[in-house]
Amino acid sequence: MSEGTAAPLPPLRVAIVDDEAPARSRLRDVLSDCALKLPLEIAGEADNGREAVALLEHCDADVVLLDVRMPEMDGIEVAQHLLKLADPPAVIFTTAYDEFALKAFEVHAVDYLLKPVRASRLLEALERVRSLVPPKDEALRGLRPGPRTHLSVNERGRIHLVPVPEVLYLKAELKYVTARTAAREFLLEESLTKLEEEFIGRFMRIHRNCLVAREAIRGFERIAEPGGEGHWVVLINALEERLPVSRRQQQLVREFGR
Amino acid sequence: MSINQKSTANGLAGSLPNFRNLGILLRLLLFVNAAALAVALVQSGTLAEAWLELIEICARVQPPLIAVVLILTGLQPLLARLPFAAGVLVVTVLAAAVTAGWHWLAADLFGPAGEPERALMFAVLVTLAALSYFSLRARALSPALSEARLQALQARIRPHFLFNSLNAVLSLIRQDPRRAERALEDLSDLFRVLMADNRELTPLAREVDLCRQYLAIEELRLGPRLQLDWQVADMPGDALVPPLILQPLLENAVYHGIEPRSEPGTVTIRIWRDGDRVRALLRNPYRGEGDRHSGNRMALANIRERLLLHFDAEAQLTSSVQDNAYEVEIVIPYQKSSPEKV
Question: Of A21, A29, A98, which has the smallest distance from its Cβ to B160's Cβ?
Answer without folding.
Answer: A98
